[in-house]
Amino acid sequence: MANLAYLVPDGDVLLPNPVTRGPWGQTISGHVVGGILARSLEQAGSEPGLQPARLTVDLLRPTAIAPLEVRTTVRRDGRRIRLVDAELVQNDVVVSRASAVFLRRGEHPEGDVWSSPVSMPPLPPDPGPLPDDMMMFVWGYGGDGKSGAVGFTKWHEAGPKYAWIRQVRPLVAGEETSPFVHVAMASDATSALSHWGTGGMRYINADYTLTLARLPVGDDIGLAAMSHNSHDGVAAGAATVFDAQGPIGNATTVGLVNPAESFHPRA
């Protein structure tokens, strides 16, 4: 399995490897940007008993495959709520930003609360050896949700869309990628999952928000598309987020219409 990290640390600077290139040109993929910001937010905000409950990533500008710095600020540090902001900086310009809310866990209340029923198709089979240049392992379902395939081919079909996503390389060399960073990186795919239609992928994502009731268990993160709304070239999408044990949260995203020929997906 490919194991070249996306990034190499050099003091306070992160040096991206070429594998960080995303589907919209010679820039760093949004899922890597989200992972970098989630990592820094978790480093600043984590504490025993605190749950990372919400992450919002704003993709402000294209991020060059060049050295990066992250600046974090704790905005609120209360007994039950901690709010942390982060900025991703290149050449003293903020290219992306994020915020995270950490909530203190407590005794769970009794009673049932209604939720819209949704389930994921089965986990993918063992893919065997993977190409060294694979960005991440994606097993997509489309149409009837009964047959899946590596990558995004099934998303060209009409009907519901699902994906199981597994990271195949560390985010930062020499570090174990945390469950929070794993799910943050996978949730960037909400845009493609919810906005991909029979005409292909026509919307570039401007942001995404992940909400979590708990952290994921295991390496497989599932996304089930729940809604797509679009008008005059602006789209809003949503997905339910899963691990192998069941639903753990939700993700939302907004997108802006982009030429179809500019999108070149890399699984």
From TrEMBL:
Record-linked InterPro entries: ACOT8-like_C, Acyl-CoA_hotdog, HotDog_dom_sf, TesB_ACOT8-like_N
Acyl-CoA thioesterase-like C-terminal domain span: 161-257
Record-annotated Acyl-CoA thioesterase-like N-terminal HotDog domain positions: 21-102
Pfam family membership, one: 4HBT_3C
Protein name: Thioesterase
